[in-house]
Specification:
By secondary structure, this protein is mainly α. Helices cover about 65% and strands about 0% of the residues.
């Protein structure tokens, strides 16, 4: 199951779009708006759609296998934010 509009790869790995989403998230961003601009320019999707895809990837075992450092960091951040909302 791919989280993006692309079909999953035959080997069961992440689609190119899913890999690109993780790559954008892995990078550090200097100022406000730079990340959102890069999302639109590099991925051709809106920031809202990007975050929808990213959230789905955090629960995808293929994403964890592909980039465990980034996925685990984002999972921790998501769990901390959920804990503050309670």
């Amino acid at each position: 199951m791919s989280t993006g509009s692309e079909q999953p790869r035959e080997d069961g790995g992440l689609s190119e779009q899913d890999q690109a989403v993780l790559a954008v998230e892995r990078r550090g961003w200097s100022g406000p708006g730079a990340k959102e601009r890069a999302i639109r320019e590099r991925l051709g999707i809106s920031p809202t759609r990007y975050y929808q895809l990213l959230n789905a990837l955090l629960d995808d075992p293929r994403a964890l296998a592909h980039d465990p450092v980034t996925v685990n960091r984002l999972r921790r951040r998501r769990d901390e934010q959920r804990g503050r909302r309670r």
